[in-house]
Amino acid sequence: MNVVLLYLALLESPEDEPAFIELYHTNLPELTKVGQRFFTEKSLIEDALQLTWESVAKNFTKITSLPRHETVPYLVTMMKNKCKDILRSEKKYTELLPDEDAVYEDGVDDMVHIKSEYQEIVALIRKMSDTYREVLERRLVLEESNREIASKMGISEALVAKRFSRGRALLIEILSDEGIEYE
Predict the structure, then answer these.
(1) In the CATH scheme, what is the code of domain 106-183?
(2) What is the C-alpha to C-alpha distance for residues 30 and 11, in angstroms, rounded to an integer?
(3) Angle, nearest 10°, between helix axes 17-38 and 68-89?
(4) Taking a C-beta distance cutoff of 8 angstroms, is the pair 127, 181 a contact?
(5) Of 48, 79, 47, nearest to 63 (Cα)?
(6) Crossing angle of the two packed helices 2-10 and 17-38, in degrees rounded to 10
(7) Which secondary structure element, helix H or strand E, spans residue 133, and what is its range?
(8) Is the pTM above the cut of 0.70?
């Protein structure tokens, strides 16, 4: 709880403390898993978590104004970015975008196109019914396993697999209707 006190001091309003504590305890395990994907050293995971929670505390009003289903993906993205920042500072991470000397002149245009399509797909997933949206979002955006999803949603792995399969088929159909070819 001592660590949480540091973050509470960064909040704009003392009335936000209970909501922050709940958000912290609910999402700490998920963000720790994200850190474990980047680092094996516990100290680096803790550094990334600290940077993330400091940022959450400083931007708490903005985060609590997000729709509920967008909060966890937002926190996960924050944690990933903090991990990447740490790796960059240690020169262990390079961006996927080509550098200035890249041979392919249209490489940046391709990356922008891919990012745009990704954002369109995420937006389409978020418009789907909750039955499929949560499973697809957790599997495709948060990169959780069927077992993790089943545990968090309180349903069987078989049901997760079925919802993912049906949701994926529905998403492909929606993409086709939108004129986006799925390969």
Answers:
(1) 1.10.10.10
(2) 22
(3) 50
(4) no
(5) 79
(6) 110
(7) helix 130-136
(8) no
Count of positions (residues) in the chain: 183
| Tokens, residue 108 | 């940046």
Q: Where are the chain's structural domains?
A: 1-96, 106-183
- CA 31-44-14 angle, to 5 degrees, is 55
**Closest C-alpha to 51, from 15, 105, 19, 87:** 87
**179 in helix, strand or coil?**
coil
Distance, CA of 33 to chain centre: 11
Six token digits for residue 44: 């680096």
pLDDT tens by residue, the chain, 183 residues: 466 766 777 777 788 888 888 888 999 999 999 888 888 889 999 999 999 988 888 888 888 888 888 888 989 999 988 888 888 777 654 443 334 344 434 444 555 555 566 667 777 777 888 888 888 888 877 778 889 888 888 899 999 999 999 988 888 888 777 776 665
